[in-house]
Design a protein that fits this description.
Rossmann fold, SDR family oxidoreductase, globular, oxidoreductase
Length: 268
């Protein structure tokens, strides 16, 4: 088995995935990225600056494609995968009645099924490099307390949180660490998307108007490194996420009152 540690990252063609890829790559890890965006992946790997990289185009909704992606990456990385970062995800906002069946199913399939399929496919590889290997999942501050105007997205991120907690128990005996990141609004291209097909108002605009903080993506990359090497089950990233986690635990009545009073759903 090769000595160089290896990480495979979905959604590696941009945003958080790209930031984590370059961060681990700069620390001499073998980096693999998966995405549906080949050009984005090529750009990510070009930023790393060494040749220990690999790109695999696939859709996280395809269970068999997961096996092919990880088998191919393990071969390229010298027979090992130390970390699988279940990061691919899409936003969806607006009130639930505005969301189309197609939008709801796509978000559930990518954000939730994709994570479950990734975990299944990752298990045999992470078991080989245990103890100390890690499945890292991207949850969200929306997985701390349900967000008005993002019921579907919040549901998927609560689901990712639950998957993380469940597998933390299931895989402890195997020596595989399971962790999640819970970022708030991160400065990535996802903020420039519209939350649903019924609106042309971008997410970034709504966040800015609400006076919420947008966290630099480098903070997520640093948090990912700390999560992989630390003991914390869930890592909040950004001021908004940290405040939400504190308030949801210690001031739930106030959070509920503020949420009900301030709700103007994304997309309206």
């Amino acid at each position: 088995m090769a000595d160089r540690k290896a990480i495979f990252i979905t959604g590696g063609g941009s945003g958080i995935g790209r930031a984590v890829a370059t961060y681990f790559g700069s620390r001499d890890w073998f980096v693999g990225v998966g995405d549906i965006d080949q050009a984005g992946m090529d750009e990510t790997l070009g930023m790393i600056g060494h040749g220990f990289t690999y790109a695999h185009k696939f859709d996280v909704r395809d269970r068999s494609a997961w096996d092919e992606a990880l088998e191919s990456f393990a071969t390229a990385a010298g027979g090992r995968i130390d970390v699988v970062f279940n990061n691919a995800g899409i936003p969806i906002g607006g009130s639930l009645v505005e969301n189309s069946t197609e939008e709801i199913e796509r978000c559930l399939d990518i954000n939730l099924k994709g994570v479950l399929f990734g975990a299944q496919a990752a298990y045999p590889h992470l078991k080989k490099t245990a103890p100390g290997s890690c499945l890292l999942n991207t949850a969200s501050a929306a997985g701390i307390y349900g967000t008005p105007g993002a019921s579907v997205y919040s549901a998927t991120k609560f689901g990712v949180r639950a998957i993380t907690e469940s597998l933390d128990g299931e895989w402890a005996e195997d020596g595989i660490n399971v962790r999640s990141l819970m970022p708030s609004f991160i400065d990535t291209p996802l903020l420039d998307h519209t939350p649903n097909a019924q609106t042309n108002e971008g997410i970034r605009q709504r966040v800015t108007e609400a006076g919420l903080e947008i966290t630099p993506v480098l903070e997520v990359a640093q948090a990912a490194w700390d999560a992989v090497h630390g003991e914390k089950l869930h890592t909040t990233v950004g001021k908004t996420a940290k405040q939400m986690a504190f308030a949801a635990r210690w001031l739930p009545g106030r959070v509920r009152k503020q949420t009900r009073a301030s709700a103007r759903p994304l997309g309206r």
